[in-house]
Every structure is written in structure tokens, then in C-alpha cells.
């Protein structure tokens, strides 16, 4: 079993105290919309891998092309990637950490213009890209995705009624095709309530706002 601390959307002051040490996570997964200094604090204090995806209130973290002139100060590939230091952005990527294979699907359906907000057509294209990358990894070593982290929930599985918090139909299809043990998401605030877990095919869908500690079979 891998002890996973999953976080999203709300800074919980409890994690600034002893609780973070007593939780003893082996892996931290962030589902978006958290201050970068909060993520940097958690990765520093836990000293374990922290993987994240951006939410709809995060800045655009896509790398910018370097101009040909003037020449960049640092050689290509040596620049600090955008985002919180010491943390790995797994949006549309597949990464292995702490014995688990994790895939990331950041952003939300578009309800207003802004970074990390996509039309359903764009979300379906993004889902296809992630599916292909996961399939290539599985061809190499026969390992499936254990955990999928997203910012928004799948459509009809813990999303909201308002346009800003509706889920993604593309994510429903992605979960069915990848078949991870867990889909972890944020975006929908429980306001102090414990949101029930849901089942989507063979996957347990978990709203992790502000944090959840899970044990995932490695």
C-alpha cells in the first residue's frame, strides 16, 4: 500500500502543524487551485514526491518558446520549469512515483475565458493525447494507470449544477478507458461537508478538497 496525501483548492491550516508529519504520506497529489508556496511548503516538509495538475484559477504553466535573439541566458533544458519548485506538473503526462503510476488531466470545461479552461472539443482532444501516452507506457511494461488526478470531476459524478462547476464528459470516457483504481479531483467545494465517494465503472471517484489521506495498492 502507498499512503497518498491528496490536496486541492483550499489551504488547510491543519497541514501547517503536526498533522502533516503524523500523516506520513509517501506521495502527495495536488488536484489544482492551490498557492504555489503552499505546495512548496508541503513538498519540503514531507520530503516525498509531489505531483500536480493546474486548476482553472492557476496560471498558464505551458512552457513558452525561447526567442532566437537575444540568446537565452541559460542553455535550453536547464531553465526552472514554471510552477511550484520541487513539484512535478503531470498535466497530460504519465509518471511513476512511490510505486504508483499516476496520470494527470488538468483544467475545467470553459465557462469564462481564462487559462486552463477548455471547450468540450478541446477536452476530448486532450483526453486522447493522455490516453495515447498511457497506452505507450503500458505497451512497454504492461503497467496500467493506478491513479488519475484531475481538477474538475467527471460529468455526473460529483459535479455541480452551475456552469462553473459542471464536470467533463471527456473525463468520463477517459476514466472508462484507462480504468484507474482512483480518480482524484477538486474544483467542487464541500464547505465543511465530507463528499461521498462515487463509482464510475471500476474506478472510485474522490473529491479531495481540502485534503484526503488514501491508501492505494501499489
Structural description of this entry:
With 218 residues, the protein is of the alpha/beta class. It is built from 4 helices and 13 strands. A hairpin with a 2-residue loop joins strand 5 and strand 6. Helix 3 (120-141) packs parallel to helix 4 (169-178). The model has no long low-confidence stretch (mean pLDDT 90).
Short description:
This protein is of the alpha/beta class and 218 residues long. Helices cover 22% and strands 23% of the residues. The protein has a six-stranded mixed sheet. A five-stranded mixed sheet has the order 4-3-2-1-13, with helices on one face. A two-stranded parallel sheet has the order 7-8.
What's the alpha carbon Rg, rounded to whole Å?
17 Å
Low-pLDDT runs of 5+ residues are none
What is the number of helical segments per DSSP (H or I, 4+ residues)?
A: 4
Run of helices and strands: EHEHEEEEEEHEHEEEE
What does the average pLDDT come to? 90
Share of residues in strands: 15-25%
The assembly state of the depicted protein chains is: single chain
Proportion of residues in helical segments = 10-25%
| Order of strands across the main sheet | 5-6-9-10-12-11
The major pleated sheet works out as: 6 strands, mixed
SS-derived structural category: alpha/beta
The shape is globular
How far apart are the termini? 5 Å
What is the number of strand segments? 13
Amino acid at each position: 500500500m502507498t499512503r497518498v496525501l491528496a490536496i486541492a483548492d483550499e489551504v488547510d491550516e491543519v497541514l501547517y502543524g503536526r498533522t502533516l508529519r503524523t500523516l506520513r504520506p509517501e506521495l502527495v497529489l495536488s488536484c489544482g487551485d492551490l498557492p504555489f508556496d503552499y505546495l512548496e511548503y508541503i513538498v519540503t516538509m514531507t520530503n516525498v514526491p509531489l505531483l500536480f495538475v493546474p486548476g482553472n484559477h492557476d496560471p498558464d504553466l505551458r512552457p513558452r518558446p525561447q526567442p532566437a535573439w537575444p540568446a537565452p541566458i541559460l542553455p535550453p533544458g536547464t531553465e526552472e520549469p514554471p510552477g511550484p519548485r520541487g513539484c512535478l506538473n503531470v498535466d497530460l503526462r504519465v509518471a511513476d512515483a512511490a510505486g504508483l503510476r499516476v496520470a494527470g488531466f488538468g483544467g475545467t470545461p470553459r465557462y469564462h475565458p481564462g487559462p486552463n479552461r477548455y471547450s468540450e472539443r478541446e477536452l476530448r482532444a486532450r483526453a486522447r493525447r493522455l490516453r495515447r501516452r498511457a497506452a505507450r507506457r503500458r505497451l512497454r511494461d504492461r503497467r496500467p494507470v493506478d491513479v488519475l488526478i484531475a481538477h474538475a470531476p467527471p460529468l455526473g459524478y460529483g459535479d455541480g449544477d452551475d456552469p462553473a462547476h459542471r464536470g467533463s464528459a471527456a473525463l468520463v470516457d477517459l476514466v472508462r478507458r484507462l480504468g484507474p483504481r482512483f480518480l482524484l479531483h477538486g474544483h467542487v467545494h464541500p464547505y465543511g461537508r465530507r463528499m461521498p465517494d462515487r463509482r464510475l465503472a471500476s474506478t472510485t471517484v474522490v473529491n479531495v478538497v481540502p485534503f484526503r489521506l488514501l491508501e492505494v495498492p501499489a
